[in-house]
Amino acid sequence: MDDFVLRALAAGCGIALVAGPLGSFVVWRRMAYFGDTLSHSALLGVTLGFLLGVNPMIGVVAVCVSLALALVALQGRRTLASDTLLGILSHGSLSLGLVALAFLETLRVDLVAYLFGDILSVTTADLAWIYGGGAVALGGILLLWRRLLAITVSEDLARVEGMPVEALRLAFMLLIALVIAAAMKIVGILLITSLMIIPAAAARRFARRPETMAALASLFGVAAVLGGLMASLRWDLPGGPSVVVAAAALFLAGALVPVRS
């Protein structure tokens, strides 16, 4: 295989392994819209990175973290419903990122690559970001696994048991932000959340324990990356969307398989 194909495989599989457990929590906690909000804000992070002369991924992490903190603060005031806040922050940050791009008159930016990913152009430096950020995110998930499960089952019960529910919720949001920054090059800003929730949703039918679902979600994610890349190379298709289509095909295939209760 060519080097760029091997780098694409390594990058996609690395993200899929981390996105599986994290996506399971997103599905359990019904936070897919929150993931979309953070991913849409990533374009603003990329733009700010270019404007300030820093790595765009640093800008993405900074903006996603700021958005997560703002959401926690606004939710605490209880003046608007969570879905309304998410809609405002999601579309507002995406639009602000597009407007900010107008100030980059002397810099050519491949907007399509950021919106829909360009997995076949992954560099060695991108791999370092992906595996570095992925290792931190995976370590955080393993460290907080039991407590995240506890607040997923019942936040009130977890609070009675003395768990810092707000801090755990914020930590979970930050882990999502980190994975979004790392996965941006793989499937793009608009499709990042799908790589987390579709494999997890496909694994849900076949798992009876949370750990099993997380492991299966990672495996389904890796299979989607392999299938999407093969289709992209075979028929000259866009890489990121092909990975998401492969994940959706796995979900539909799994939905047709009878599962014993």
What does this structure look like?
With about 260 residues, the protein is an all-alpha fold. It has a single domain, classed as ABC transporter involved in vitamin B12 uptake, BtuC (Orthogonal Bundle), CATH 1.10.3470. The chain is about 80% helix and about 0% strand. The chain contains eleven helices and no strands. The chain has helices spanning about 5-30, 30-50, 55-75, 80-100, 110-115, 125-155, 155-160, 165-185, 190-205, 210-235, 240-255. The protein is globular, with a radius of gyration of 18 Å. The mean pLDDT is about 85. InterPro entries: ABC_BtuC-like, ABC_TroCD. Keywords: Cell inner membrane, Cell membrane, Ion transport, Membrane, Transmembrane, Transmembrane helix, Transport, Zinc, Zinc transport. Involved in the high-affinity zinc uptake transport system.
CATH architecture: Orthogonal Bundle
Helical percent range? over 70%
The sequence of SSEs as H and E is: HHHHHHHHHHH
Query: What is the molecular shape?
Result: globular
Please identify the top-level CATH class: Mainly Alpha
Q: Can you count the beta strands?
A: 0
Provide the structure class: mainly alpha
What is the rounded Rg? 18 Å
CATH topology: ABC transporter involved in vitamin B12 uptake, BtuC
Structural domains: how many:
1
Portion in strands: under 5%
N- to C-terminal separation?
43 Å
Largest β-sheet summary: none
Pfam families: ABC-3
Main location: membrane
Family: Belongs to the ABC-3 integral membrane protein family.
Organism: Azospirillum thermophilum
